[in-house]
Amino acid sequence: MDVIGSLLEGFATAATPTNLAYALLGVLLGTAVGVLPGLGPAMTVALLLPVTYALEPTSAFIMFAGIYYGGMFGGSTTSILLNTPGESSSVVTAIEGNKMAKSGRAAQALATAAVGSFVAGTIGTALLVLCAPIVVGFAVSLGSPSYFAIMVLALVAVTAVLGSSRVRGFSALGLGLALGLVGMDPVTGQQRLTFDQPLLVDGLDVVIVAVAIFAVGEALWVAAHLRRTAAHVIPVGRPWMGREDWSRSWRPWLRGTAYGFPFGAMPAGGAEIPTFLSYVTEKRFARKPEEFGHGAIEGVAGPEAANNASAAGTLVPMLSLGLPVNATAAVMLAAFTQYGIQPGPLLFDREPQLVWALIASLFIGNVLLLLVNLPLAPAWTKLLQLPRPYLYAGILFFATLGAYSVNLQAFDLGILMVLGLLGFAMRRCGVPVLPLVIGLILGPRVEEQLRTSLQLSGGEVSGLFNEPVAIVVYALIALLLAWPLLAKLLPGRSPARAGAAAEGAPAEPDDERELVSSERSR
Questions:
Q1: At CA 305, angle to CA 302 and CA 309, rounded to 5?
Q2: Which UniProt keywords apply (predicted)?
Q3: Which domain holds residue 43?
Q4: In a domain, 476, yes or no
Q5: Burial of 225 (0-12, 13-18, 19+ CB in 10 A)
Q6: For 486-503, what is each residue's pLDDT tens digit?
Q7: Which helix H or strand E contains 184, and what residues bound it?
Q8: How many structural domains compose the chain?
Q9: Whole-angstrom Cα distance, residue 245 to residue 249?
Q10: Across-strand partners of 183?
Q11: What would you measure as the largest C-alpha separation in the chain, in angstroms?
């Protein structure tokens, strides 16, 4: 009953005219960046972090949540109309969605994606309301050794499943942990990795690092690979669905939600795996399996529902444990730090108004997405014709302006340039950038829990293993690291990507294949 009362109070806060305006703004911005290939909600939130310093935290996070949900929604538009996913989680949608568009059913494909996003997002947010307080109640009972082990699991899990090479993933994680050490030791007061530069004593500002890695690095990478001419867009009328379309879509929506939420809530679960599993499931249970590969509506409805349900799932570990499992959650966690709010299990007790208003705004954002984006679908297709040089020049301009506005120091612009080039080089070498950002954010907290655990045990390493939860988590870490070897020993095992190729994954245009590859690596 306390949960229901807190949620109602959250609705009272989120439904104020000011917060409703920020929710609408976030939904529109998120859909816009989701529609544009190469952009994403993580980059948009990173760009807006410096701008939101003057905003009240609740309003800022309501806008960020709208951007997150809107970005997941908008990625389906380019998948369906251009066969070029705007987000890596929308890759599977392109398999059937683009075939529907080419056969003259673009309106139906966009409609089932929109309604499926609404259904899955609403159910996923309801599950978030039920699960997050339970996870918080469990987390507050944990000691430092268990919490340290859980954070190590998050770091290892996110790193191990990204990119084509674990070596590259752990290299990125090492860079992030090293950047997190820059500044003053919180215990001894000794300077670390400052190179006698006084402006580095307080450490690297997470906002500047996020803007550099996501916005500057991605803008340089995409601008270096995409063509200058506008892409050919399949025309679309007002999205609508007939009775048969509704009949064939509602079951995939529910099954996709069942796949997406638990995978999103797991460390490094992401949306790619549940969208693929949803597609395979719908192909197996379809009444007309012969349509798969030629534009089956079930192949759009299920993966899109899984995609948006996973977005709600990722907020469970972020709000209850302070652990980000994807790029957007990592940047939102940086925003908590920006406002001086300590993320973790005590967040629900210390900032209940913010947390429940944020959760309530997710319900409101889902309704806004459906009401706003169905009529505006033709307008979003025109956005795809925006000249790319102007787009990425604007991104670089606002990134520079935002980084300078953090501390009004020209030194920060040098940091922005160096880390932006680092982000570009990482994409060029196929190194995922998400482990770096998560390592930077979680690194100081991991160090704090490690030191606390060792202090409690008098410096004995055995103090890290003196709680049952910690032992179980370390066993999971060992299994995760050893899984590639075990998978090779098991007969008949094949990677999911090979399965995706066998299912007829869409071929990407030559000049945009690099872009989608970089999106997948994130």
A1: 140
A2: Membrane, Transmembrane, Transmembrane helix
A3: 3-487
A4: yes
A5: middle
A6: 777 776 554 444 444 434
A7: strand 183-184
A8: 1
A9: 6
A10: 192
A11: 70
